[in-house]
Structure prediction request, 300 residues.
Amino acid sequence: MDKLKALRFFEHVGKAASFSDTARHFDIPVSSVTRQIQALEEELGARLLHRTTRVVKLTEIGEIYLQHCSQILRSLDNADELIVNYRSRPSGVLRISCSSSYGESRILPILSEFEALYPEIIIDIDLTDKVVDIMRDSVDIAVRAGQIPDERVVAKHIDDNNFSLAASDAYLQRYGTPLRIEDLSEHRAIFFRTSDQVLHWQANINGRWRQVDIRPALITSSPRLLRQWAGEGKGLAMMPNWVWRSNSLPAGFRILELDYPLYVSRATQLGIYLLYQRPKYAVPKVKAAVDFLVSRLARD
Prediction:
């Protein structure tokens, strides 16, 4: 048994839930995949996969083993890439995962400048709000909002993620301008939905948190729709401050100040972080991208 090959076959079968898909991916017969995984199970003395004529499914111990195998294989791939690219010009496919709203407002506008500096780098950017594990997934750089991330990765703070209450002139002309937290009960809100919760507005009044009483006009996971409805005067919206700096809002918006500040979370120390694995910084394409993004975003 070629154990490295067996591990790669097992990882692909575990994720694709298919021996035939794995065989096509590696351009080998299905029987070769089967023999390697059977030999791996025999060596371990454990069944990693449940097999029927219709279904291939990981066993409980198979799921645990897959997690460890994936980390080992990614580390090995990273080590190979480091050796191949050591002292070379920045080149190859650079995989970036970025939250959709921040990516559209802050990352996409500067990618042309980066491409002009490093034309041999092929940018593969995925704008998604799904959780990405850069220790496991095939991602070179991730940009995410939240609190200080996992200590296992390098986290460069590139922006704050504080929010301000915003309204369009059209909304203010129709509904008036709120001056106090209590006034919001007579107004309409456009709430943003993350992957796991609706960001209801919070206020800290004399050291005590409370959820703001305001009627929703819309709840959406689309930053574009949130901005559109707010621009059309259909509701107030909490906008991240980096949106204003990126000039991605149309004219006619105003920031409103109430008697107490509003928040979208009771964890007030939020930021935007650029994440990468420390060993990958030695890869020229990753170093070039990290240095460029930090210099262009953290300085604005």
User: Anything to note?
Assistant: The mean pLDDT is 87. The chain has three domains: 3-85, 92-158+270-297, 163-263.
